[in-house]
Write a structure and sequence with these properties.
This protein has helices at 2-27, 31-50, 54-59, 78-90, 155-177; strands at 61-68, 75-77, 98-106, 112-121, 124-135, 138-148. It is an alpha+beta fold and 179 residues long.
Amino acid sequence: MKKQQLNIPITLISALVIVFIIIGCDNKVDNKAAEANIINTLDSFNIAAAKADYNAYFNYFTVDAIFIGTDANERWDKKAFMTWAKPFFDKGKAWNFTSINRHIYFDKSGTTAWFDELLNTQMKICRGSGILIKQKNKWKIQQYVLSVTIPNSKLDSIVKTKTAIEDSIINTLTRKENR
């Protein structure tokens, strides 16, 4: 009788362990497939700009997306960025960025991802980074940040070049914050 009573808890525990393993497997995010989709999204996003395909390019953004450009004054919501970029696209030549090194990360739910990448551009190497969210089974760019890279050995001369311009921006922004 004691042996039979002992088998029931062991059997129950074994069954529960199997159920939890199955449930855990069902909830796992397939990051390889998601990563492939994001790579395709970001590459297609860059190709749309290179082809000056305005509608395709901006369809990769969420409705409430933010684009942060290389200039300290460049922080646009999607509508403002579309307005700023339209003349470039209308001329048939926007920009041509190609990823040369990319890293992609996911949250636990698999519905938010972030990335950083080095880009070959007309400005030489730039860094793109951003956040993507999954909407209706498509990855959309929620925020994109474009940065110009500066070799550390050239940083002092670049700082001297931009000091007057950026001191003015710092003063303006500091005054606004102190109001």
